[in-house]
Design goal:
With 798 residues, the protein is an alpha+beta fold. The protein has 23 helices and 22 strands. A hairpin with a 2-residue loop joins strand 7 and strand 8. Helix 12 crosses helix 22 and helix 20 (703-711) packs across helix 23. The relative contact order is 0.11.
Length: 798
């Protein structure tokens, strides 16, 4: 190849002579490349890179029932060592809340009781100390614990002599007395797990069902399923014929919630890059046409067409290299800042932590692919050099540039591609925006603004019976309600936006499954939930009084046809399944009120709910709700003080504003709406710029023809129609292709949509019409300028 380095230097000088063109082209390409590099980094972090455990591809989740169904009973009583020929390690745990006692203050942390295969199965070794020994899983052995690095630093001040230190804690699963744990290890600082229950690990000394397994190297998923099915069916011959276990990749299951979003985002970023490349290719074709006289002279002087192509290729390479370098520089500067934000918006941490979202092999591959794509589009002007008549161009002293049929077709195809891409993105963005609006407009039945909340747990030893729990509940409510600025205080079992436990109830209308919640007086005031009929609970609704309930409006209509008619009727609560917490003792309860329906999530359609007085059915685990004035975070400290005054050994768990819990429901839809909205605006701007450039170039090409037409009497409208006739087929082709692309991209959004379908014709039509109208306006601007040209002046110049 003849002195390609000299061509690169020449290309750089040519670009410097036209800084506006070079800057526009480089920035356009860099934006598209940066988007794809970022998308590739996310795909690698969440989907491509394995979980941060040795041989993570052999880790599989195990389920013993279909989604929404209950697994067979007594699975924990089986001898799971019988499937050790397929399981290298069976992994199980029991999540728990540890209420740490002593200095510096009581604190609640999340941890887990783990089986012997937990640490070995995940391939985790403590950074300090040792793992659990087999004898420490036997009943009666001294309690030991491995703590997280953050707990070691925060509560124990990073004490280098941490091994052997002891701490006391109440735990939810063993509530009778505080237990004393001896610390035998500290987890590595960068330890990452699938859930947040990692502050304390302790040996699980009761049988448990395996939730996860590390398969042996030679065992496939199908073989594991067959072995588990054969083992369980052999031990439980009465299982239904269609029962089967489900074993699938742990990594695949973990990333399943964000996979659709990331795939759509990557597709959208790739589409933006195509549009950016098409836009720059169009600019290069126009620029090559403007240099046709130079090219023709070089051909006439003996330069080969390959030599001319090499010269143009050098220019495309310089543009692509500059854009790629700028893109990687921008992503490297911003990814550390953006990664935590993206992770929070996705609502799921990247495997390995936020540091896993980085420039890795996938990002480099995406950058290389983008550079190749940029070069491919940048070389399109070369095709126009093969169809030139050098003698004609060198003899002609005119300014007319003959671009050839191929170059003209290329320009039209590129603009059609830009229009199609912009419609695709705009339609997808419109679907997500409308879906998000539907979510935000959905009536949740409660108002989370100005509400502070936190969870607490009562120790079994301090509150051994219902009477003690009721006394504590009453005292705490009095203190909470006395906090200045609190308009309503309440306690509830369970948590807003958390699916309540369901129980069967019997009424005249039949037997129904209802969600059961236990609440204190003023609960509906604290959450601004409307009472439609009847009365609220009062302090008189306590143990020993008439058993009462408040039902949701939907349940009232199912029972009696209307809210008013349901008041005074009775509901009979059936004995609960013994696999559930006994939320309501069986027996009859009188309906004393009807409350507005609430949703435990935007997509919740099960609106049959029953509310019981917590003073009639007390519980150990409660959630506090305070309706406050102004920012609820200012009331967290007074809430903690009220709890501490009621019980000095009790502390708050996950305190914060309630609206943050509700906002989590909208994070992913909002993120995707914002992302697609921004990309569609950028793509539409490029497409409209391309349409304008196409018509402006055609006007420039046909200046002499326009002058002659106007000289012989053609009016401005005829000139406008001339160029609209040329541009309209390009626009229509882009619209048709864009609709097809929008339908294809929308299919990837189906799982994220709410209240709208992926094939919503109104959205597709509005997006297409919007781009078409904007493109038509972009076409009119240069054609109207052409009608203002003085034909006599132009013909004299010719």
């Amino acid at each position: 190849m003849l002195d390609f380095g000299r061509d690169l230097r020449l290309a750089a000088r040519n670009l410097l002579r036209r800084p506006n063109f070079a800057l526009l082209a480089v920035l356009t390409l860099a934006a598209g490349i940066a988007l794809n590099v970022t998308a590739a980094s996310l795909l690698e972090a969440y989907l491509l890179r394995s979980l941060p455990y040795p041989a993570a591809e052999r880790l599989h989740d195990i389920r013993f029932a279909a989604p929404g169904e209950m697994p067979p009973r007594d699975l924990d009583k089986l001898d799971w060592s019988r499937v050790n020929h397929v399981f290298e390690h069976a992994i199980s745990w029991d999540l728990d809340v540890f209420s740490l006692l002593g200095a510096p203050a009581p604190e609640i942390v999340r941890g887990a009781w783990v089986t012997p295969g937990f640490m070995a199965g995940l391939g985790v070794q403590p950074a300090i100390g040792r793992a659990f020994r087999s004898d420490e899983f036997h009943k009666g052995a001294p309690q030991v614990a491995i703590i997280s690095h953050s707990l070691w630093q925060r509560r124990f001040a990073g004490d280098p002599a941490i091994l052997g230190r002891r701490f006391s804690a109440y735990v939810s699963d063993r509530p009778d007395e505080a237990e004393e744990f001896t610390i035998i290890g500290v987890l590595p600082e960068g330890f990452w797990h699938l859930n947040r229950f990692t502050a304390v690990f302790a040996p699980l000394r009761t049988p448990n069902v395996p939730y996860m397994a590390r398969l042996r190297p030679s065992v496939s998923t199908e073989q594991a399923i067959a072995a588990v099915n054969a083992f369980v069916r052999g031990a439980m011959p009465n299982l239904p014929k269609d029962w089967t276990s489900r074993i699938y990749s742990t990594h695949g299951e973990y990333s399943s919630r964000v996979r659709p979003i990331l795939m759509v985002a990557a597709g959208a970023a790739g589409l933006v890059l195509l549009i950016a490349c098409a836009n720059v290719a169009f600019l290069l074709i126009v620029r090559a046409a403007a240099r046709q006289r130079e090219v023709s002279i070089r051909l006439a002087l003996g330069a080969s067409r390959g030599r001319i192509a090499q010269m143009l290729a050098a220019e495309a390479l310089v543009l692509g290299a500059l854009a790629t370098s700028l893109a990687f520089l921008a992503v490297s500067w911003t990814l550390d800042t953006l990664a935590p934000l993206i992770e929070s918006q996705l609502g799921r941490s990247a495997p390995g932590g936020v540091a896993a979202i980085s420039l890795g092999p996938a990002a480099i591959a995406a950058g290389a692919a983008a550079l190749v794509l940029t070069l491919a589009f940048g070389l399109l002007p070369i095709l126009s050099t093969w169809r030139k008549d050098a003698s004609r161009d060198t003899r002609s002293g005119t300014r007319t540039v003959s671009a050839g049929v191929a170059a003209a077709q290329m320009r039209r195809a590129l603009i059609a591609l830009e229009v199609a891409g912009s419609i695709t993105l705009l339609a997808a963005a419109a679907l997500m925006v409308q879906s998000t609006r539907n979510m935000l407009a959905a009536d949740l039945g409660i108002d989370g603004e100005h509400v502070a909340h936190a969870r607490i747990g009562l120790r079994q030893s301090a509150y051994p019976d219902d009477a003690a729990k009721i006394r504590f509940t009453t005292r705490l409510l009095d203190r909470l309600q006395a906090i200045p600025g609190v308009s309503a205080a309440s306690l509830a079992v369970g948590h807003a936006f958390q699916e309540p436990t369901e129980q069967r109830v019997k009424a005249d209308a039949g037997i129904m499954e209802v969600g059961v919640q236990r609440i204190s007086p003023r609960y509906f005031d604290a959450l601004s939930q409307r009472l439609i009929a009847g009365r609220h609970f009062t302090n008189a609704d306590r143990a020993g009084s008439e058993l009462v309930t408040i039902v949701s409006e939907s349940l009232a209509r199912r029972i009696a046809g209307s809210a008013a008619q349901a008041v005074g009727r009775e509901l009979t609560f059936q004995p609960p399944d013994d696999r559930f917490v006994n939320v309501a003792p069986p027996g009859r309860r009188t309906i004393v009120g009807v409350a507005a329906d609430t949703r435990q999530g935007v997509r919740d359609e099960q609106l049959f709910d029953a509310y019981l007085p917590v003073l009639q059915s007390p519980a150990r685990f409660l959630t506090i709700y305070l309706r406050t004035e102004g920012d609820p975070t200012g009331w967290i400290a007074p809430m903690a003080a009220a709890v501490g005054a009621t019980d000095p050994e009790m502390s708050l768990d996950t305190p914060g504003p309630l609206h943050q819990v509700i906002d989590q429901e909208f994070l992913r839809p909002r993120f995707l709406s914002s992302l697609l909205g921004g990309l569609s605006v950028f793509a539409a701007a490029l497409a409209l710029l391309g349409v304008y450039g196409l018509v402006a170039f055609a006007v420039k090409q046909q200046e002499r023809e326009v002058a002659i037409r106007m000289a012989v009497g053609a009016g401005p409208q005829a000139i406008v129609r001339l160029f609209l006739k040329q541009g309209t087929p390009v626009l229509l082709a882009g619209v048709v292709a864009g609709i097809a692309g929008a339908v294809a991209l929308a299919r990837g959004l189906e799982s994220q949509l709410f209240g709208i379908t992926a094939r919503d014709t109104a959205t597709l039509a509005m997006s297409s019409v919007g781009i078409a109208c904007a493109a038509a306006i972009a076409m009119l601007a240069p054609t109207r300028q052409a009608t203002r040209t003085d034909p006599a002046t132009l013909l004299r110049e010719e």
